[in-house]
Amino acid sequence: MIKLSDVSYAYPDTDHYTLTNVDLDVPQGEVVGIVGASGAGKTTLAKIISGFIPHVDGGALSGRIEVDGINLPESTLAIAVSHVGLVIQSPFNQISGAKFTVREELAFGLENQGVEREEMATRVGEVAKLLGIETLLDRSPYALSGGQQQLVAIASMIIMRTPVLVMDEPTSQLDPGGTRMVFDVMSKLRDSGITLVVFEHKVELLREHASTVHVIADHQIVASGPARKVLSDPRLEKWAIGTTRYTRAAALAEEKSLLPKSTELPVSLEDSIDVFKGFKNLKKG
Amino acid sequence: MEVSFNDVKYTYPGGVEALKGITFNVPTGQSLAIVGQNGAGKTTLVRHLNGIFQPTSGTVTVGDWTTAGHTIAELSARVGYVFQNPDEQLFARKVFDDVAFGPRNLKFDEEAVASAVTEALEETGLTKEAQSHPHHLSLSERKRVALAAVLAMKTPVVVLDEPTTGQDHNGVRMIASIVKKLREANRTVIAITHDMDFCAENFERVIVMAQGEVLADSSPENVFNLPEVLAKARVEAPQLERLASSLGWKSHPMNVDAFVDNLEAKSR
């Protein structure tokens, strides 16, 4: 669904590359996670996969980028946005500024596409229910908290029903309950055939929801593979991404010979219960 | 410096009742985390400390002052408030000037300004960015500029509104070490956070809020062992507390070392 081959990019008026020689292959209908320290190039990659680079930001882009069968750099932004939606990092910048209510804000993109009023209303209702923001529909987008704005920004992209969704730290402003809900929504969208690429710091939730994870460090993809394998890699500390407390606790327990050496450390609660239940049995046996 | 809320109610001009009678006090040098879902009233509450909001009824005190009798400018000498969204706080063209703004307003002499700014930039890992335009920095860096701007004022009370949002692993570690330093300097630290692991590891007291009320107020060990309260406030216990409870442990490890110590004790 998404295929990047040997992609490198430098922003205008800079003499260094923000990304170098990136290869990425995302099959249709999967949730793929991308992790990396601040400044590693995550937002840049998100903009490349959604066509904002080069069509908005310009700069020197090389390599091949194909999303949903479209060669993005040779296409236009108008075509790109009908195939891939981008939820940007700061929700206050995603909100159009042209609308007085959340309801109108959500309908804004559909209005531009000339969708019938009745269908527009149905889709606004559906997406509001999905994200639990029905009670916000008649409020001003600017009278919302950071977390509420973030849910509106996500809803305004989901409503477009693009086959690919790219989300750049979509849960940064959300409480733990809201964060879980957004990840559950991602899994639901995946089950309906949508392909999602999620840039996140929340390792535990990526382990639970993403099939594959890629790591960006030093402007390159330095590790790729199944979520548990990549997210339990001790090099995550060095790459300033960090592992979960579950991983760190198991690693320390292994170091103190309280657990047998494993091939893959646990990343999530479920992984850890398996590992530490074994500990209990070992002791009894 | 001690701060206290005495039956504080606050209703927004539109009629939304954001705080429904909040009472607690924070002794000098204590570190307090406030947790709870979006819209619980956390930000509204802490904005009373530097006078951005005045209570509809009740009183807020900061040291020997009642906030109602003082201006935001006066209160800013006692309470440093780091905004959740740095773009509400930053305005200068150079990082240095943004960080120097507070100390200059507090009438530090230029030498003291320079040393306060240098120290704050070092603590937040921004020394190299002193001459950069804040808007050329990433969101996580701008958040650290906003934090540096408050640290430089050396206020006895520091309020951090979601300091770890958007920070990577190193950023979170840096903020944890700043909280530790503030505690060691006996400054009062109040932080709003959604990161329960950060909260469990770095704060001695936790208040859980929902719908303008305090649901729980105790040590992290106690608070994170109240599943009904956490569910009501849409908060999750920290990772290792969830694991210990799933394994049927009676102890409440708040960090990796405590968890492994427990494991070691069980293996003996």
3D structure, described in words:
The complex is a heterodimer of chains A (about 280) and B (about 270). In chain A, strands 6-7-8-3-9-10 form a 6-stranded mixed beta sheet, with helices on both faces. Chain A has a 4-stranded antiparallel beta sheet with strand order 2-1-4-5, with helices on one face. In chain A, a hairpin with a 2-residue loop joins strand 9 and strand 10 (about 220-225). The mean pLDDT of chain A is about 90. Chain A is globular. Chain A folds into 2 domains: about 1-245, Rossmann fold (3-Layer(aba) Sandwich); about 245-285, no CATH class. Helix content of chain A is about 40%, strand content about 20%. Chain A is α/β, with parallel strands linked by helices. In chain B, helix 4 packs across helix 5 (about 140-150). The model of chain B has no long low-confidence stretch (mean pLDDT about 95). Chain B is of the alpha/beta class and about 270 residues long. Chain B has 2 domains: about 5-235, P-loop containing nucleotide triphosphate hydrolases (Rossmann fold), CATH 3.40.50; about 240-270, no CATH class. In chain B, the strands form 2 sheets. A 6-stranded mixed beta sheet of chain B has the order 6-7-8-3-9-10. A 4-stranded antiparallel beta sheet of chain B has the order 2-1-4-5, with no helix packed on it. Chain B contains 11 helices and 10 strands. Chain B has helices at about 40-45, 70-75, 95-105, 110-125, 140-150, 170-185, 195-200, 220-225, 225-230, 240-245, 255-265, and strands at about 5-10, 15-25, 30-35, 55-60, 65, 80, 155-160, 190, 205-210, 215-220. In chain B, a hairpin with a 2-residue loop joins strand 4 and strand 5 (about 65). The chains are: A alpha/beta (about 280), B alpha/beta (about 270). Chains A and B meet through helix 7, helix 8, helix 12 and helix 13 of A and helix 5, helix 6, helix 10 and helix 11 of B.
